[in-house]
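Need residues for this backbone.
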């Protein structure tokens, strides 16, 4: 049957053009196109603002690289080598021109390509953020559902206490407590994770405490927001009353009906918190000596390494834009009635 359809498509150009029109007219594809067009000025604005801020930071990068004992002649020579003696607009335009050709420039500190630096350090940060996000989402959904099953019950009160603790503690303070308890006292996890090792188990041990430091506050937020939304769905929505009247089991009403509709709020929250998640990685990675892009960003800011900072900030901005686009697409997966780009009748 599939072979017959393929032969029919090859013989009928009109059928192929009809399929092309349907694909081009897809609401999801139109949404992706609009979001990508909107992302272009956003990314340009992020790069320009970063360039301005880095140029306003006191200190000469050449002086920071060579040290306080460097001679004026050596500083002037390094300025010329790095292109720091050019006007602001010329330097930004040269960087932007390189970006359009896929070249993020050369790092001031190590004279290596920014592309290679990002490729070296980005995987560690991606695994860390993925670990923290997936575990916090999974535990947050499970605990929220259990808490919403009996509002003000024992599980709800325990989850409230844990969530308040997670909302009250800063990630860097939690990281220090976790290091003291689980590394120094118990010895379960390494204190310094300067390498992920060669095995998955070693990588998990190295990333567990940093991921817990980032993920625990996220878990607290997700749990409370989702629990409140599920309780509201269970108490106020007509479709819940209808499902109960049809004899649908309570757990099925809670999980399939109420929780599924409450996931819209959770997806929006995750998309809005992507920037916070990335910022937390820049704070947590230096504490655990993780060789990630967040720690590299802090080092680059300390020595005013403009090309490296620009490249890392651009990657963070791309991740944030892509995450928000994915959230918009997931709305249509959860509720097929949503069709972007079509006006409601």
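Answer:
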């Amino acid at each position: 049957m599939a072979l017959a359809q393929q032969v029919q498509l090859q013989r009928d150009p009109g059928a192929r053009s009809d399929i092309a029109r349907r694909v081009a007219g897809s609401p999801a594809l139109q949404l992706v196109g609009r979001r990508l067009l909107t992302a272009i000025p956003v990314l340009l604005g992020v790069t320009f603002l970063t360039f301005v801020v880095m140029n306003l930071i006191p200190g000469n990068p050449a002086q920071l690289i060579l040290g306080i004992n460097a001679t004026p002649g050596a500083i002037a020579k390094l300025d010329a080598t790095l292109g720091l003696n050019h006007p602001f607009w010329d330097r930004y335009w040269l960087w932007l021109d390189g970006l359009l050709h896929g070249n993020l420039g050369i790092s001031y500190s190590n004279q290596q390509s920014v592309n290679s630096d990002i490729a070296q350090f980005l995987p560690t940060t991606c695994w860390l953020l993925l670990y923290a996000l997936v575990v916090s989402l999974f535990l947050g959904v499970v605990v929220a559902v259990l808490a919403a099953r009996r509002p003000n019950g024992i599980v709800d009160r325990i989850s409230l206490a844990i969530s308040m603790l997670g909302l009250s503690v800063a990630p860097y303070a939690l990281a220090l407590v976790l290091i003291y308890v689980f590394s120094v006292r118990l010895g379960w996890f390494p204190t310094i994770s300067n390498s992920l090792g060669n095995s998955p188990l070693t990588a998990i041990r190295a990333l567990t405490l940093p991921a817990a430091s980032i993920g625990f506050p996220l878990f607290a937020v997700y749990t409370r927001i989702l629990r409140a939304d599920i309780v509201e769905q269970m108490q106020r929505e007509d479709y819940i009353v209808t499902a109960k009247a049809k004899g649908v089991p309570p757990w099925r009403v809670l999980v399939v009906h109420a929780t599924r509709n409450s996931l819209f709020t959770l997806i929006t929250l995750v998309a809005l918190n992507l920037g916070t998640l990335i910022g937390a990685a820049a704070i947590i990675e230096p504490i655990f000596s993780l060789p990630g892009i967040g720690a590299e960003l802090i080092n680059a800011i300390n020595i005013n390494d403009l090309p490296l900072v620009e490249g890392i900030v651009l990657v963070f901005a791309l991740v944030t834009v892509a995450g928000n686009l994915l959230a918009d697409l997931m709305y249509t997966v959860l509720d097929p009635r949503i069709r972007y780009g079509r006006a409601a009748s």
